[in-house]
């Protein structure tokens, strides 16, 4: 089964199609919830403790935490441990800044039911279609 | 979001890689904040200076930006560093930590940040003009600039404030826009304020009850020097217990003059409201050291506080007074007293104990007269605190 959502994006244009496996966190801060040396999620209430974000499509329902998160996300990317893209409902400026420094797309203002429907392990494809950016999620059952 | 020709060129890399990186981060953050455009700024103030806050990852980003040619485009000041740079505290810390703190300072200075700044009171170096747009991090300085100078700045994050410094611009939204600077309620303090600690307690309380922009009617009965410290301490306290960046103080704030308070909801504060904050006695076991200078005090202010509180300090058995002061005061320290009636006076130029690991220096309790320090010491420095009503 596929779920698809497209956004009109004046702020985003993709050079290449991005594909990867989803890692889904209900709540996440880059300071405190992610191990900065391994890229593994450490907090239980994230709903995905032990998941690695490296080279994954990181899907987050809600961000929390400190402005230091920008530095941690940037550092993970420098070590090759960053995600391929970040999808979220609300834009957290701390994470937006980190993603910009990493050069990875961050797509936000996504409908909450769409974000909630994505599970860890789903295959995600993010592609440019004209002026739209489309997220295609292949559900794994 | 609208970008000017210059901003488009900066984004495309015409003015170098570092400016392009900064413009990319800034435009993405501003878009997320729903800003319609950027606004040119006159002065940036960057935070994220303490190595304990930004750690290796922050230092790595700063050094990489510098290696790509990052230079500030406007006059820029910086927040204080951790206490590892002070003579008193340095021996308590690992050499590696002290060296990395020095590297943070050096890389910021290499980008053109005023080496004489490193204070949370940048308005003491350059007082902003009314209506001027700024990109300041450091919540206590932001609320002072907006409220006392009538300048316009949001509470910028550490990274965004640096990107704003490099591009000379920030997001045009929030407190830059006139409509967002109107008071949300009238707060009347029903008793005259006669100490810095009382002003701090009032600020902490206002922060808890304001819906955004308080209009404050308060009578401060202090000499001009301590009165200014009390106002700074009250504003810093408001910014600690709320996300507010502007408070209109009647008779002081330039923008308070044109406000008609008739239609504002009125909230009153009496002395009983502050009892919980002011009546705490800290400890029965004597006090090793107290903190003065949150926000930073200059040496003249520090000595007036010391002179007015000396008998109370003695009766409490206080052994040390730590004075956090701007780095531009460093050359004057030798001319000031270093102990008085058995109390050791320790100066911390360009440093901030609140953003430092004080447990490493064997400190467990740090009483203060300032609401901001009281609020953040347990959260950031790992030590207990209380407000001593001594000055």
From TrEMBL, chain B:
InterPro entries: PMDh-L-like_dom (IPR007506). GO terms for molecular function: lyase activity. Belongs to the AcnX type II large subunit family. Its EC number is 4.2.1.182. Residues 1-387 form the Phosphomevalonate dehydratase large subunit-like domain. It catalyses: (R)-5-phosphomevalonate = (2E)-3-methyl-5-phosphooxypent-2-enoate + H2O. Heterodimer composed of a large subunit (PMDh-L) and a small subunit (PMDh-S). It comes from Ignisphaera aggregans. This is Phosphomevalonate dehydratase large subunit. It comes from the Archaea. Transmembrane segments: none annotated. Keywords: Iron, Lyase. The keyword Iron applies.
